[in-house]
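Contributing new records

If you add data, match the layout below exactly. Sequence lines come first and carry their own label; structure lines follow with theirs. Keep one chain per record. Anything else will be rejected by the validation script.
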Amino acid sequence: MSKHTFMGYVRKDGSVGTRNYVAILPSVVCVNEVVESIVHNTNMTQGIIHHQGCCQTPPDLERTTECLIKIGQNPNVGAILIVSLGCEGVDTDRLEVELRATGKPVDRINVQELGGTSRSIQVGMDKAQALIREIAQMQRTEVDISCLTMGIKCGASDTTSGIGSNPVIGYVADKIVDLGGTVIFGETTEFIGAEHILQRRARTPEIADAIKFIVDRMEDRAKAIGVDMRKGQPTPGNIAGGLSTIEEKSLGAIVKSGTRPIDGVIEYTDVPKGKGLWVKDSPGREIELMSGMAVGGAQVILFSTGRGAPQGFPVVPVIKICGNPITYERMIHDMDINAGLLTTGERTLEQVGEEVFEMLLRVASGEVTKGEAIKYNKSMDFYMLGPVI
């Protein structure tokens, strides 16, 4: 394998997966336990456990449907089993049609038609087994790194995040963009107070305006219910870790996007429209943010932390990069890279950045992260805008 390639699963649509899972896809929250039982009793499966799918406003129901379709389309998913209740708001016929269009194997069960949960679990296991056997024959192929879409995230941040782990991710982001790949970053709430810096990096005036627009819109959502961001952003943990204001947090957070021009701004359910560096409108909380990255087609996520955030994601490997050397030693079984060596001055940005880049290629080629090794990779949910009704 050459220096800038990885071994991935080439799909019929030309996309490349770093993993080869059967996604067990609940169309609605009501069948989550059925999905969990199927996953518990099978290998190579991951449950897309969410809490939506019915009794939502029409825009949010459409948003849920789009998210489920895009998760199924993610290159790390090799096959899909749709688990339907039978009376949900999500259009399961549309789900099946759009997912079959990818060329991936797709099957479906309906809990009400099968006569309940116990029968559905057994039939679901049988169907999952058939899908597993079908995609298990796939072999990894050497592909160029330009086939990679990388999501980036920071969580449980402290003062070391902005000077240690975030700059390291920024180094890797620049390298991926320079090599023809794609990088997605979000956490719109953590642009607040620093959005003007991101605007300067916009490739066009229209992109600069779009950055300002999504920041204003995020603030307006809080104001619409008579509150502001305080206590939500920065979090109590951020403050205890030395980040006193949202502006201070934002200045450290945006560093993880690197220094390259921003090629576009996309909505939560969108996929980047080309290569390069893309902003995705998304919240700061881990589960919704990482779900948005997977929806956007990310095959791997780099996750910066200072205080120690262990969350992974079902179908996308998450590499944990810790800027705090004390946290790294304390949570060594959760953290993959010790960027605290940059914080303490023991290593340079380039040295730690290259270590992360090399691990990124290995993980993309099949090496498991610490979170994957202990199956701490189930956290997810979709970002909604309106109330449950």
